[in-house]
Amino acid sequence: MAFGQGLSGLNASAQNLDVIGNNIANSATVGFKASTVAFADVYASSRVGMGVQVAAINQRFTLGTVTSTGNSLDLAIDGDKGLFRLVDTSGNVSYTRNGQFQADRNNYIVNNSGQRLTGYIGENSTLLQELKIPVGNIAPSATQDASVVTNLDANAPVISITGSPEVLGQVDLESGGTTTSYYYRVSSTGGLTWTDSTGAGVPAPLDGTYTSGSSNVTLAGGQVVSGALEPTTEYSAAQQARPFSPADPASFTHSLNMNVYDSLGNSHELTQYFVKRAGTSGTESQWDVYYYMDGASVNAPAGGGPLPMTFDSIGRLTSSNTLTVTVDQPGTAGAPAEALVVAMDYTGSTQFAGAFSYDFIQDGYATGEYSGLSISSDGAIVASYTNGESQVMGYVALANFNNLNGLQPIGGNAWQETRDSGQPIVGKPGTNSLALLKGQAVEESNVDMSAELVNMIIAQRNYQANAQTIKTQDQILQTLISMR
Q: Is residue 418 a contact partner of residue 94, using CB atoms and an 8 Å limit?
């Protein structure tokens, strides 16, 4: 008689119940992976069998439910492949699926056990380092490029630099083959003042009421002549010369203000003045553009300009769409900044018959204080600042193993590398077949409570059955002992 088989079955069933109980106990543990017991028989050639043994306890690395938490540092691995890589203060490396992280007093990103999350610092780094929250100010960035898309009103009046003389109106009276010319000037109230050919006032040559093309015209003194009175030159008032000056609004057609930033983060107002000029040809219109910063002309173009912008007959920009504006000393005397060089791009600008309109962007910004952090699906750690800018400070690293069940559980929802697991395959989320991340979320336990309860009933039945075999063996033994 042998009790070994039943005893091995009791031991195996007890271990199975331990595993099931551990699964149920950790059903609410973030990142926990349920385990199952693998059994194997114990065989000897001299016997039918020597019972059962626990061959292995395997963990199921399937994905648990991903749940949002709202915590900016919580992370969930949204796929089967990948583990967070952690380092403790002694430099020991471990791996976990638990993405509950927070900042410690030194601003390192740590888990509940104080182990630090690792990744890559900077955009292109391949060196694994402990990740920190990037507190502090973001460095300012000087404006280097600016894009301006504008529509200049095609119907705006031309502004002349030199002005133009008055053109006197002229009408010719033809009578009896003789042509007599009369000149006039229009007064501010709309009345006519008769002049000689030089513009000097003379007595009115015409009396009474007359119309253009009339056959009878009354001259001064009452003489009526027969003929046609026709205007041959329309009156044109003298145009005042308007050389450009920022202080004279009449000397420019449109103005556009935009903020740019120097190397220290100081904001400066760059003003562009657009002046409608007479075109140099019958097929193009011309505008002059002047550039002033903080009320003073820029260093380049020299004297602030002008630089010409020309448009064809359908409103398209025909001159160069790019130019460079330079200010040698944009800062103050107490804090001089580097020379400010801005590449201006007017691609898309037009001259249509419509109101002046514009849209512009520039790439500079002032310094800003740290205001928050987010982690994107590719593991990018993005810091936000009070100036509206954001900056990628680094990337969270994930690791995977060829044999996940070869990892050694060490408690605290963590594993360590072993010879059986193989070496880790480390990279950014979404690379090397690694899963992506989901920010402000965690991965719940993958324990299926219903399945575990069913497994517990089965394990209980197995335990009872093995106990029954021992009881039966005992009864047989007692029968043999009593036979004498």
A: no
DSSP structure string for 75-116: EEEESSS-EEEEE-TT--EEEES----EE-TT-BEE-TT-PE
3-class DSSP state of 354: coil
> Can you read off the two tokens belonging to residue 307?
């630089």
Q: Environment class of residue 359 by beta-carbon count within 10 Å: exposed (0-12), middle (13-18) or buried (19+)?
A: exposed
What average pLDDT does range 269-274 have in this prediction?
Answer: 96
Specify the pTM: 0.70
- Residue range 301-327, pLDDT digits in tens: 999 999 999 999 999 999 999 999 999
Judge if the upstream peptide bond of residue 306 is cis by omega within 30 degrees of 0. yes
Instruction: Provide φ and ψ at 153, rounded to 5°.
Output: -65, 115
What the block records as the tokens of 175 is 């009578």
| Alpha-carbon gap, residue 186 to 58, rounded angstroms | 105
Q: Identify the bridge partners of residue 326 per DSSP, sorted by sequence position.
A: 300, 341
Residue 117 phi, psi dihedral angles, 5° rounding: -75, 140
Q: Which residue has the tokens 């060196």?
A: 127
Per cent of the chain over pLDDT 90 is: 63
Contact criterion met (CB below 8 Å) for 74 and 440:
yes
Cα 309 to Cα 210: distance, rounded to the nearest angstrom: 48
Of 30, 68, 73, nearest to 396 by C-alpha is 73
